[in-house]
Amino acid sequence: MDLQLFILFALTFVINLVGSLAYSVRIAGIRTRRIALSFSLFNILVLVSRTANSFQAPLLAKRVEKNVLTGATGHGITDFRWLLLSASLATVAGAIFTPSFQRVFTRAVQAFAHSRSTVKVMLRALSPMGLAYIARNVVVPAGSNLSRLRQQRLPLGVLAVNAGATAIWTVGVFASMYAAYLNPNLRATTSNLSSVVNGLATILLFTIVDPWLSVVTDDVVQGRSSEAYFRRSVTGLLGSRLAGTVLAQVLFIPAAALVAAIAARI
């Protein structure tokens, strides 16, 4: 792995890690009863993710363009396999860090509600006392979280849709970029088709998965469901998200071939 690929690997990791930690925000919102504030503060991390994405896309495009122009396309598939692996590893890391992150984030929400200043919260988090608090709240996920999934079944349809949507979203940009190797003359067209692929994933997430999770969140806040059930839901969604990133490895080549075919016919 050369330096450029390592940077792309790291950027992909950050993007997917933030996406995995998003579930923790709802847990913090339920605990503090400040869901809107929780999402608002999480947008700071979303900005980090979007910044990483803004660097990832042009760097990857340049790497593909250079390989196409020089004819060095033999290792193209390996590059993308590494990036897809990064997405899976980031999801695993997100699942491991979820208990710790939700504890620290809950404290951040409470601190902001008191001080009403993002700067003060960030300075307090970076202070020796704040760093010590973070260190004390680093915990290992309990194995009972997995065993509790059997106590109350989660909707398999929602989990399947989440896995499928994650696979499509994960593979979208990469497949459109790799399609440039399959049809070099239309590489500009294929790279712009990623929004079409990701659009399908967005529709599935926003029409099925997100509304279901929002209803479960509201049920917990209103006392109609338990926080334990919500935690099981988050565990299930993280598991299906990981399954989606693994499925992306399988869908990658067919998706790239489909993008190349669409580019040739539009």
Descriptive report:
The protein is mainly alpha-helical and 266 residues long. It is 85% helix and 0% strand. It contains ten helices and no strands. Helix 9 packs antiparallel against helix 10. The relative contact order is 0.14. The mean pLDDT is 84.
Main sheet record? none
Rg over CA atoms, rounded to whole Å, is 20 Å
Please report which band the strand proportion falls in: under 5%, 5-15%, 15-25%, 25-35%, 35-45% or over 45%: under 5%
Count the strands?
0
Helix fraction?
over 70%
In terms of structural class, how would the helical and strand content be classed?
mainly alpha
CA-to-CA gap between the ends? 36 Å
Note the topology:
Elements: H1 3-32, H2 35-70, H3 76-115, H4 118-126, H5 128-136, H6 144-147, H7 156-182, H8 187-191, H9 194-221, H10 227-265
List keywords for this structure.
266 residues, mainly alpha, globular
Summarize the structure.
The chain is mainly alpha-helical. It is built from 10 helices and no strands.
